[in-house]
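Progress narrative, Year 2. Work on 3'5'-cyclic nucleotide phosphodiesterase family protein from Dorcoceras hygrometricum advanced from sequence curation to structure prediction during this period.
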Amino acid sequence: MNNVDAYDDVKAKTAVVKEETSWEGNQVENQLKAQLCSSAIVNKSRTRAVQLKKQPAQCNEQTRSKQRQAG
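Result:
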């Protein structure tokens, strides 16, 4: 006797969709930001002004906000 489920054909055709949690979405977003900022880092021998010009806008905003908090 075969053990057949009435929904076997439906199960075979149904794609499994993984729901992305907010934590996972944040991790992906953080990784992308880190890649952008790390690719923009220039040699330490250059001045800070030159480094800021080379970095993407997101990195510049983070740096400015840190400078405001420190100052």
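The longest helix spans residues 22-40. The chain has four helices and no strands.
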